[in-house]
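Hi R.,

Quick one: here's the TonB-dependent receptor sequence you asked about.
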Amino acid sequence: MSRLTLLAAALAAGFVLPSAARAQTAEAAPGVVLDAVDITSSILPSRMEHVPGSTAVIDEQALEAQRPFTVKEALRSVPGVHTVDEDSFGLGLNIGIRGLDPRRTSRTLLLEDGMPLFLAPYGDPSAHYSTPLDRVQRIEVVKGSGQVLYGPQTVGGMINFVTRPVPKKGVEGSVSATVGNNDFRGWHANVGAGGERGGVMLDLLQKSGDGVRRGHDFDVREATLKGQLNINPQHTLLGKVGYYEEDSHITETGLGAVEYAEDRLQAPTARQDRFEHTRKSVQLQHIFQINDDVKLATQAYYVDAQRASFRQINEPGTLGGRSEMDRCPGVVATEANSRNCGGRWRPRDYTYWGIEPRLDFRHDAFGVPSDAVIGFRYHEEDIMRNQFRGADPRFQSLSYAQSFQNVNGGTGHREQIDIQVEAKSYYAQNTFYVGDWSLTPGVRYEDIRIKTDVMRAEGQPQNNPESNLTNNQSKLLPGFGVAWNGLAGTTVFAGVHKGFAPPRPDRDIDAPGGANTAVVSKTRPEQSTNWELGVRSRYFTGVGIEATLFQTDFDDIVIQDNGRFFNGGESKQAGLELGGRVDFGRIFRTAHNVYLSAAYTHLFTAKFKKDVASEGIVAGNRLPYAPKHLLSAAIGYQHPVGFDARIGADHVSEQYVDGANTTVENLEGTEGTIPSYTLFNASVNFRPTGSKTSYFLSAYNLTDREYLVSRVDGKFAGRERQVFAGIRYSF
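And here's the predicted structure, written out as tokens:
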């Protein structure tokens, strides 16, 4: 509560600080009635032609036409984005941009209305939560030099989920219900009221169903309350409170090679495996429109999350291609055996909060019309990681496992790590407008202090000096972009920026066993230099295209192999992104619109630049989980009576899964390649003209193709055919 009080006080300071400017503005225009500040919660500028980098916006109309099952399907329409169907509903979200490992989206910054979404943005950037599409108005993707305004993950790209605003004209809302195969069902209700003085809106949703593998059922619930208060024409206060809860039987352990060959959809310990996740969040924002040219926005946020996972298989396929019960040595993992054995609980607590004032203003201080941004963010995290293990079946209960707090040895309290993060971020950017040109230099400075204290490791207490370390890192991250708009409806852009991913403290711990053996290593953050050159155009009526050449050079990339992280040295990714849409209805000026859309990525280079003999890496080896080709294409038809139908295909080419580029599968299923695959999808929407009711039907993996998506912790099968239908009533 003291932190919430601090956030509220900081926001209140936003009213006091600019009081003189407010009075001056009021005197300058007596009797003039200004409109309330229009809140869009967007991270992109209103004039896209001046954005000096590759961007994409998936708006509400596109989301309704596609009717994606999860955010993964929606993002496949963006060039350069690779998503992985490890689970059916995106509960452990895997998104990679431009050849970066998609595992838990750890190198792609996820935001909701500008607020970070990870478990811990610096200390544990894992995406076990993303904004439900029911609340999303549009999705914004930024991959270019404009990333210097945001952080900390800037080596790949940034995705911002913009939620629906509070109603402005009375009572508005909607109710929707969805059902599908694999026992999927869900509902969403939204109601709000608003007017000149602001408004309030409540969102409620619940989704449940079966996962990719048998027994992997899930149940998620969320409640969100959003409000806006227009204090006067210059001051607007926004607030949002959210509560999310997940209870699923999804395990993060895959199958051994023999198990997968016998039945790729089995999950031997699914009935006991659990993943429980609760997330409470508060987001506040004060907008002070000082005058037409100056705006001060102060954002504050607070997130409290707990996740606890239970697994009975730690390493798959160790018994001749079949998995072993982790706490019952020599016992093959089966549903019957899982009932009579314990396992490992991993409860983890995360708290983070931050405050960020940002000043946007127009000026001509350099004799050139300019838009400038100056901002600062203070951010803190407190992470507590625990692990309990035991062979007794009663360890399937978290409360029983936690009764072994501080009990030493193989049965009891295996791990306890306290991580505290303090981060200060400073950024500035200026866009100069010179004729048809816009030049945008920017800089970001990250000052980070990560304190890691290994209090317990391998079942033993730790108090040696090496088990406690403070890692201080300071990095200057410049960027520069240029855009040319000399041709109508067309922007040619180029940019370069330094990318940054802070050191992950959970990767820095080595505890060979016994008391006082834990060592916390002081690692460096990942850094990259990101280049791009591209063009986007709507020169021809009904035709929109974008093409981008990109190159990313890593100074020191971190590679994952079967849950283990190691330094892979220098690397390089380079490729071509193509995206576009053609609306023949606009071209031929008819209300009957046939449209084509496509997004293609050719990652022609994704390689290590140096040998790492200890890991079997040879210069020139391809990076793991970096497919050379990604393609998403669709054809659709829109009828003026409110009918919209589309059919599409998504293609992913072959991938390596380790730095050594192993092609022969091992019994554990963690080595070998991932073959290429193509999936077909379709959707139909109907909203009669003038009606408040809409009907929709969507299907993914129409041909029910069998395909492999990951070998992290064993083999993971892709999702079966998923069909769902729904109805929505808006008022």
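Confidence is low (pLDDT under 50) at residues 1-38.

Cheers,
M.
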